[in-house]
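User: Here's a structure from my thesis project, written as structure tokens. My advisor, Dr. K., wants to see whether a designed sequence matches the one we expressed. Can you design one independently, without my sequence as a hint?
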């Protein structure tokens, strides 16, 4: 059962991993934050007790649904805009952050600081395809 708790955020971690790869490929800017450390983030998500097993499973389903919406959007099967997809992304991110903020504030801060970088991956057809 612990395996499913770990897998529940695997897609989210994969997105964060894509952020790390994309950040490494872009020129360094002193005003930007350091790229996410994927292995550290993955370990922290796996080990955090701030999110219970059933909640992790629910989050996994929500992440999968959101990614499927992006796939359908890029395939032309979903008539919407990126602005419309931003809302469920923001809601999901806020949900994860709210679950982490009291019991694992450092992990919440790491995810919050990666929010726009994750959106940049999701909202770019080429980067999203490379991630998937």
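Assistant: Designed independently from the structure alone:
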């Amino acid at each position: 059962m612990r395996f499913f708790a770990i897998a529940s955020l695997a897609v989210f971690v994969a997105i964060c991993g894509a952020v790390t790869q994309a950040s490494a490929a872009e020129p360094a800017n002193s005003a930007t934050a350091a790229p996410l450390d994927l292995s550290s983030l993955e370990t922290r998500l796996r080990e955090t007790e701030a999110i219970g097993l059933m909640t992790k499973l629910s989050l996994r389903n929500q992440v999968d649904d959101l990614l499927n919406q992006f796939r359908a959007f890029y395939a032309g099967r979903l008539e919407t805009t990126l602005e419309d997809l931003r809302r469920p992304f923001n809601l999901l991110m806020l949900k994860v952050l709210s679950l982490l903020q009291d019991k694992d504030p450092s992990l919440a801060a790491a995810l919050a600081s990666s929010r726009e970088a994750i959106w940049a991956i999701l909202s770019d057809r080429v980067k999203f395809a490379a991630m998937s």
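When you compare it with your expressed construct, this may help: Helices lie at 2-7, 10-25, 38-47, 53-75, 82-100, 105-113, 115-122, 125-131.
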